[in-house]
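Narrative of accomplishments. A recurring question from our advisory board has been how the design workflow behaves on a single, concrete structure rather than in aggregate. To address it, we present the structure tokens for one chain from the evaluation set, followed by the sequence designed for it. No filtering or post-editing was applied between the two.
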């Protein structure tokens, strides 16, 4: 009987999101255990992230399924141990691999080649400079923050790495060739969304509020993240003020419709204007939709050109689009 069934509390982080689970999973809600995943179903990454944002760190396994949970942990631990024993998979190495794969994916989808050596000189050089800049920035202490981000919100960490690469790539192409400026863009890329890990979104199990209303509420809560990111960075004295400024302005818009301060383009920092182009582009590319990488990139470029044009500095956007569509028909 469901009512008399016993449950054991385990850490949310002991299960891997996005993979089928061999046991039932429950949450404790309004005084009772509520089974919300059956064997063979998965904890979707989006739901997992939502739990993390809401600081829900405990889930519950029915006593009857607990042996299966323990077996699952053994298999997982074994796999993790063999990964950790391999020095190739140290956190530093993982971050560098993520950097390399971001550069490759970008180069493949935008410039029709994964192989940097075969690219046009201008593109190859910019990608190499971008990669070297992000690599330099990833050195301590930024590396520790990135590791924390990967552990708390992996999707945000992936996006942040891609934005870091793309922002420096565009920065260099748009004339911000000073290495210090490029490093500021790279650091802002890594750090800009860390505030998202501190936000508390609506309760996914609260049925008293319609889903559409919850979505609207969550969108409003999400708008706090640039300010929350900056609050977190204010406690890290090694982060330059310029980087914090880019982060505070990364959702501002040239036409004054952005947040949190509805700044106009004229009051925005130059590097923020480059950064918003990179951040919007990656957010468009990585939003859930059908199509392969080439199609997603083409669609994002078109949308920025036609629908979102007023959000960006016109001269910078024109140059950025010309560069990003270099190899397109
Ligand atoms: Fe953001
Ligand atoms: Fe972002």
């Amino acid at each position: 009987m469901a009512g008399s069934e016993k449950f054991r509390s385990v850490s949310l982080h002991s299960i891997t999101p996005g993979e089928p689970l061999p046991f039932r999973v429950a949450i404790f809600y309004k005084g009772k255990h509520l089974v919300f995943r059956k064997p063979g179903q998965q904890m979707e990454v989006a739901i997992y992230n939502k739990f993390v944002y809401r600081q829900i760190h405990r889930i519950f396994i029915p006593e009857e399924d607990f042996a299966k949970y323990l077996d699952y942990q053994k298999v997982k631990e074994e796999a993790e141990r063999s990964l950790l024993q391999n020095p190739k998979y140290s956190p530093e190495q993982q971050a560098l691999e993520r950097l390399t794969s971001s550069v490759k994916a970008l180069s493949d989808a935008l410039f029709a080649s994964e192989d940097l050596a075969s690219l046009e000189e201008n593109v190859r050089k910019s990608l190499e400079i971008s990669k070297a800049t992000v690599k330099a920035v990833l050195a301590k202490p930024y590396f520790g923050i990135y590791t924390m981000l990967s552990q708390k919100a992996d999707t945000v960490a992936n996006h942040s790495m891609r934005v870091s690469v793309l922002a420096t790539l565009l920065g260099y192409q748009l004339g911000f060739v000073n290495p210090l400026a490029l490093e500021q863009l790279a650091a802002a890329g890594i750090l800009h969304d860390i505030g998202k890990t501190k936000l508390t979104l609506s309760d996914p199990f609260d049925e008293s509020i319609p889903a559409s209303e919850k979505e609207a509420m969550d969108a409003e809560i999400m708008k706090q993240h640039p300010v929350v990111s900056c609050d977190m960075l204010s406690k890290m004295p090694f982060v330059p003020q310029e980087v914090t400024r880019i982060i505070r302005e990364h959702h501002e818009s040239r036409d004054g419709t952005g947040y949190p301060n509805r700044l106009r383009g004229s009051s925005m920092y130059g590097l923020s204007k480059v950064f918003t182009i990179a951040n919007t582009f990656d957010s468009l590319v990585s939003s859930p939709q059908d199509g392969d990488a080439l199609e997603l990139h083409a669609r994002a470029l078109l949308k920025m050109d036609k629908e979102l044009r007023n959000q960006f500095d016109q001269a910078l956007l024109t140059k950025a689009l010309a560069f990003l569509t270099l190899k397109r028909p």
